[in-house]
Amino acid sequence: MDAKTDTAPIEVLEDLLASRFSCRAFLPQPVPRAIIERILAAAQKTASWCNSQPWQLVIASGAATRKFRDVMYGAASSGKPNSGDFPFPREYRGVYLERRRESGFQLYNSLGIPRGDKAGYARQALENFNFFGAPHVAIVHTDEALDKEVDRLAATLAGNAPRAMAGMKRAINEFARGTLDEEAADRRHRDSMRSAEISEGIAAFAEKRPPKF
Ligand SMILES: Cc1cc2nc3c(=O)[nH]c(=O)nc-3n(C[C@H](O)[C@H](O)[C@H](O)COP(=O)(O)O)c2cc1C
Q1: CA of 77 to the centre of ligand 1 (A)
Q2: Which domains are assigned to the chain?
Q3: Distance separating alpha carbons of residues 189 and 183, to the nearest angstrom
Q4: How many C-beta atoms surround the C-beta of residue 76 within 10 A?
Q5: Whose CA is closest to atom 3 on ligand 1?
Q6: What is the pLDDT of residues 106-145, one digit of tens each?
Q7: What is the pLDDT of residues 142-178, one digit of tens each?
Q8: 103 lines ligand 1 (CB under 6 A)
Q9: C-beta of 49 in contact with ligand 1 (< 6 A)
Q10: Per residue in 134-144, pLDDT tens?
Q11: C-alpha 24 – ligand 1 centre gap (Å)
């Protein structure tokens, strides 16, 4: 129990999570700097790999928000193709498609945009670039070198240790199909742990060089 409030920490967390929602219309009043700093100090306590805390933030207020919004809104409504840094998902299917549709219809219903009103959908989508009228905007970015390192690591994992990767892929696929023979998978895992591939992988890691398979 929290001595100050007589409330168990899990209840505090449950209340906070239950009252969280994505706001899509903001009042124009600026948020006092002390409150922004307090929120950031709390957010700073989240976990990061090797405690690298790789995030950097730019927070715009007043004229800077307006300037940024004008550029973003102008670009988004120009009709030019979207050229974001990250591609959109290839496809939403199954439950993901259902959730996405449901969320869209709830949003349009609450805004009084009728079903099939494509222009209304587009106007609402553009509100993203109007920052939903918010007086501030936060841009979270990271050091370019860290991002490249993640790409390199992903490529190394995908391209190397062919035997281990094939074994893992097979186990995941069999598990997904409900046909996984756990004993056989264990046997393959033990064989793989004794293989030349794993010794080379460990040696390469220790010597900080790419492995040779
Ligand atoms: C990574 C991420 C990106 C999102 N992008 C948008 C967005 O571009 N526009 C928008 O209106 N909502 C966006 N949302 C909000 C989600 O649609 C929202 O979280 C979801 O509908 C659930 O509603 P709730 O957050 O109110 O519980 C995003 C949420 C996340 C986590």
Answers
A1: 20
A2: 27-142 (3.40.109.10), 152-206 (no CATH)
A3: 10
A4: 15
A5: 22
A6: 999 999 999 999 999 999 999 999 999 999 999 998 888 8
A7: 888 887 777 777 777 666 677 777 787 788 878 778 8
A8: yes
A9: no
A10: 999 999 988 88
A11: 9
Write the single-letter amino acid at 149: E
22 Cβ below 6 A of ligand 1: yes
Of ligand 1's atoms, which has the minimum distance to the CA of residue 103? Answer: 21
Q: CA dist 10 to 1, 2, 6, 15, 41, Å? A: 9, 10, 12, 9, 21
Nearest atom of ligand 1 to the alpha carbon of 127: 11
Residue 89 CB contacts under 8 Å (≥ 6 apart), including other chains: none
CA of 103 to the centre of ligand 1 (A): 9
Which tokens sit at 143?
A: 């050091």
